[in-house]
Specification:
ATP binding, 11 helices, Rossmann fold, about 15% strand, alpha/beta, CbbQ_C, binds adenosine-5'-diphosphate, 3-stranded mixed beta sheet
Length: about 280
């Protein structure tokens, strides 16, 4: 006879909201009224979609708002092998017992955290569907394996990020999902803002930051000629950090900006010309 393993439906008492709380204010330079809009969406408990290219400040904004709202932040980096059980949880074997372990989404729903799905279109379509009942009036999470419906904590908020630049049939978000969110649009910061951000994040002088921003702007302008995405603020900051470490400007730009952007040799030459012009 097969011995039955006792099932103990216990919660993860070891997971504490404090572990997900942001204790120091993350630096965020606003582009417009995004903080006001986010605050209003939060007050109305409306789910939020952050649209914009990679590396332009979406994640930093969510961190900043989580701090301002005093809510813990649970981030899920989406990828194509992300299964429903990775989000809601699964039964695991622990000391000869089968115990339930909440996934990050369930944890956020129970504790009233802000749950941030980074790059939602990367996730499998069937995985995305579990968030649907959380995004409308129901505000519930259904755990199939336990047959349990969990009402979301009153402070819970769902936030997703989405890069419209990657648009293809496979990577586009379904209308049935996207029409469940209020949307805030992000883009690369305006030049003078980006200079301030680079100076602050990388500790370089104004002149260096200014050159990097000019390079970034020029690269963004050649986007149509084969580059799928422009140079992100993140990459400009990386180049600035290399320069801060003593790397020569042109080498820093090649390593942190040009090479990560493309493998195309023709484009590399074009980018190199832009770098030589400025460094
Ligand atoms: P995304 O989530 O859009 O891919 P991030 O939020 O990770 O991008 O942004 C990349 C980096 O750019 C951040 O770590 C931060 O250093 C910087 N950054 C971009 N925009 C801002 C901003 N408005 N204020 C402060 N830092 C910013």
């Amino acid at each position: 006879m097969v011995e039955e393993i006792p099932v103990k439906k216990q919660q993860n008492t070891e997971i504490r909201a404090e572990d997900f709380r942001i204790t120091e204010e993350p630096f965020y330079l606003p582009a417009g009224n995004e903080a006001v809009l986010f605050q209003a969406a939060y007050d109305a408990r409306l789910p939020v979609m952050l649209k914009g290219p990679t590396g332009c400040g979406k994640t930093r904004f969510v961190q900043h708002m989580s701090f301002r709202l005093g809510r813990p932040l649970i981030t899920v980096a989406c990828h194509e092998d992300l299964f429903v059980s990775d989000l809601v949880g699964r039964y695991i074997l622990k000391n000869d017992e089968t115990v339930w372990r909440d996934g990050p989404l369930t944890t956020a729903v129970r504790m009233g955290a802000i749950c941030y799905f980074d790059e939602i279109v990367e996730a499998r379509k069937d995985t995305t569907v579990v968030i649907h009942p959380l995004t409308d009036d129901r505000r519930t999470l259904y755990i199939d394996k336990k047959g349990e419906v969990i009402p979301a904590h009153p402070d819970f908020l769902l936030v997703i990020s989405y890069n419209p630049g990657y648009q293809s049939v496979l990577k586009d978000m379904k209308q049935s999902t996207r029409q469940r969110f209020t949307a805030l649009t992000f883009d690369y910061p305006a030049a003078e803002h980006e200079i301030t951000i680079i100076c602050k994040e990388a500790g370089v002088d104004q002149e260096t930051a200014d050159r990097l921003v000019r390079l970034g702007t020029r690269i963004r302008n050649i986007r149509e000629h084969g580059l799928t995405e422009g140079a992100s603020t993140r990459l400009l900051i990386y180049a600035a950090r290399l320069i801060r470490q003593g790397v020569a400007g042109a080498d820093a730009c090649r390593a942190a900006i040009c090479q990560p952007l493309t493998d195309d040799e023709g484009l590399q030459e074009t980018l190199d010309d832009l770098v030589k012009d400025l460094f």
